Each structure stands twice: as structure tokens, then as C-alpha cells.
């Protein structure tokens, strides 16, 4: 049993992470190898030589192929043998490493971990701000020693900002504002509107002026494990609302949690914004600041995962503020069950 959906697209890496050199990364419990061919298209292959199972990521690139470092078996980008360890032996094309379907979109390299014939690029989550005109997008990657669903819980409950991120984006008004939670199909939403408040340090700097603001947070969960958070502030009286809010400074926090194991995941984070588009220096500073915020989350979640394992007789509790995460987990469990997998662990 697994806690993740198998027939789905997962982020394997940022476009800049995958290059000609082999990149090893475990995705949904499967050790995989990624590299770019000479034409820059991406290869995804099982990171185990079909001979003696040494990780192929330790091997040597030769053109579009890879040669195992142990005995020299050479495999093409389709995973099939091109040259045997004894070069005079006839090539056995049945010697083959499994390959996976990959696709590039939204600055990410996506891999389909399930049945290859079901790998439809139209099923890639619609992280639209990452590619839309009038938006700039950048971010980073953290390995996190915690169940990927704990990060989904974290992102669908921004009440923690008041305490975990009190020096940057947190403020008391977050815990005082009412929450609205909604499920539409296979998406879950959590909305919070904070009118007439002082902007926290980060947003005051982005707005470049003082004054009371209206602040919003709209969290959206998308299968298999993405969360987009529409955030920003606008000066009071500018006309912003939960439904329409391009009057001030607006960002879209983009998060994708790719399971590695049952208790670890890859956290791909970033923010798309619709302001200061032509300032690459601000983009770099913004990314550094955001990385610091998410580092605080990583510290909390890894401590939480250790506590869960240290207290097997206890279970997580869910309060009103946790409804978004609970709904997201239910959506995941239903999708797993519909796909023929056991939903017991996910539920």
C-alpha cells in the first residue's frame, strides 16, 4: 500500500536541475535517473543497471547513452542495451532498464510514475501563473524528511504563519480572520479575507508604501499533490475583494510535493508574481526570502514527523483550521481508490 496516487504526473526537478550529467532522484519509492540528450530532451530511467543493479547515475554519459561504471554495460536512452560488458559479445536488446514518460511544462520536468499508456500531458496540474504572460516565476527545491501530506496540511492551513513566520509574513490578524473552506470536484479551497489591517513586513516592502491594506489568502489543492496559494495586499479603498484582487501586489505561491518514500518528499516551491516584472535582482532577493520562510516550515514538519514516529499510539487531531488539509487528504484517498489502489493508508 502507498499513500500516493500512482497514475499521475509528479515533478522530478526544475528545468535547470536536469542537465547532461546524470541526476539521481527517488520518486514515489522508485530510484530514477534523469539526464538531457544532445537535443536537450529529457530521459528518465530506472536508476539500476539491469546487470548487477549498480545505480546508473554513477555511470558515464556517452553521447545520448549511459555506460554502467561497474562492468561497462552501455544502455541507450530507450533503456535497451547497446553494448555488452564484453564488447565482442552480441548485443542482447532484451537487456533493458525501465524508462518513464517525461514532459516539460511550467519550468518543471514532470515524470509519469504509473502505466505509460495513460501518461496524458493534459493531466499535468494547471499551474498557470508559472507560464502566464504578465507573471514572473522562480523558486527552489528542498528535500524534506516528512510525509508529503504533512506539507499539504501545512499549506492548506495558513494559521501557522502567525507563529512559525512571525518575522516575515505572519501577523495576528490571520488567526482572527474567518475561514471559508470549499470542495469543487477534485479541488479543495481555503479562503481568508483580512480587511483594513497593517501589512506585514514582506508585503509592505512589496507594496512600497505605508497605509492600511486589505489582505487575502486563497489556498487551492490540486491532484496529485500541488497547492497554489493566491496571496497579496491592496490599499484600503482600492476595490480589491476575494473575487477580484489585481489592484495591489499579488503573488501565487506554487508548491508541489513529490513523494520520495512514505516519510520523505521533495518539496518544489516558488512564487509567481505580477509586479516588478523587469527587476531580476528583486526576483533573486525574493527567492532568497521565500526560501528562508519555507526553511522554517521544513524545520517544523521534520520535527512533527519524528514525533509521529515516536508516538505510534497517538493520532493527529483535526480542528476547524485543519479542514482544508482534511479535504485534500480525502480527495487523494478517493483518487487512489478510483485508480484501483488501496486507499486505507491514504485515508
TrEMBL record:
Domain Rieske: 9-111
UniProtKB keywords: 2Fe-2S, Dioxygenase, Iron, Iron-sulfur, Metal-binding, Oxidoreductase
A single GO molecular function term of this UniProt record: dioxygenase activity
Keyword Zinc appears in the UniProt entry: no
Source taxon at top rank: Bacteria
Record-linked InterPro entries: Cholesterol_7-desaturase, Rieske_2Fe-2S, Rieske_2Fe-2S_sf, VanA_C_cat
Pfam families in UniProt: Rieske (PF00355), VanA_C (PF19112)
Gene3D superfamilies: Naphthalene 1,2-dioxygenase Alpha Subunit, Chain A, domain 1, Rieske [2Fe-2S] iron-sulphur domain
The name this protein goes by in its record: Aromatic ring-hydroxylating dioxygenase subunit alpha
Organism of origin: Novosphingobium anseongense
Amino acid at each position: 500500500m502507498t499513500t500516493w496516487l500512482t497514475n499521475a504526473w509528479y515533478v522530478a526537478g526544475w528545468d535547470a536541475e536536469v542537465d547532461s550529467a546524470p541526476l539521481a532522484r527517488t520518486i514515489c519509492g522508485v530510484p530514477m535517473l534523469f539526464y538531457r540528450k544532445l537535443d536537450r530532451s529529457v530521459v528518465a530511467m530506472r536508476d539500476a543497471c539491469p546487470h548487477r543493479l549498480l545505480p546508473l547515475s554513477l555511470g558515464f554519459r556517452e553521447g545520448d547513452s549511459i555506460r554502467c561504471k561497474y562492468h561497462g554495460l552501455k544502455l541507450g536512452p530507450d533503456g535497451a542495451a547497446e553494448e555488452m560488458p564484453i564488447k565482442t559479445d552480441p548485443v542482447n536488446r532484451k537487456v533493458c532498464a525501465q524508462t518513464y514518460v517525461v514532459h516539460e511544462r511550467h519550468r518543471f520536468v514532470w515524470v509519469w510514475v504509473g502505466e505509460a499508456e495513460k501518461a496524458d500531458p493534459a493531466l499535468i496540474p494547471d499551474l498557470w501563473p508559472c507560464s502566464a504572460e504578465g507573471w514572473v516565476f522562480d523558486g527552489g527545491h528542498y528535500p524534506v524528511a516528512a510525509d508529503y501530506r504533512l506539507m499539504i496540511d501545512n499549506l492548506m492551513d495558513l494559521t501557522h504563519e502567525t507563529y512559525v513566520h512571525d518575522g516575515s509574513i505572519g501577523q495576528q490578524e490571520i488567526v482572527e480572520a474567518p475561514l471559508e473552506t470549499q470542495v469543487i470536484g477534485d479541488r479543495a479551497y481555503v479562503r481568508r479575507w483580512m480587511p483594513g489591517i497593517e501589512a506585514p513586513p514582506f508585503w509592505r516592502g512589496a507594496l512600497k508604501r505605508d497605509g492600511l491594506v486589505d489582505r487575502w489568502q486563497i489556498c487551492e489543492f490540486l491532484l496529485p499533490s500541488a497547492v497554489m496559494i493566491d496571496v497579496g495586499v491592496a490599499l484600503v479603498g482600492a476595490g480589491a475583494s476575494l473575487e477580484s484582487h489585481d489592484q495591489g501586489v499579488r503573488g501565487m505561491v506554487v508548491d508541489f510535493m513529490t513523494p520520495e518514500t512514505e516519510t520523505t518528499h521533495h518539496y518544489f516551491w516558488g512564487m509567481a508574481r505580477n509586479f516588478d516584472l523587469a527587476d531580476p535582482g528583486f526576483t533573486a532577493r525574493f527567492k532568497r526570502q521565500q526560501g528562508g520562510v519555507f526553511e522554517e516550515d521544513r524545520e517544523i514538519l521534520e520535527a512533527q514527523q519524528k514525533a509521529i514516529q515516536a508516538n505510534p499510539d497517538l493520532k493527529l487531531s483535526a480542528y476547524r483550521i485543519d479542514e482544508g488539509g482534511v479535504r485534500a487528504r480525502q480527495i487523494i484517498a478517493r483518487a487512489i481508490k478510483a485508480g484501483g489502489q488501496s486507499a486505507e493508508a491514504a485515508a
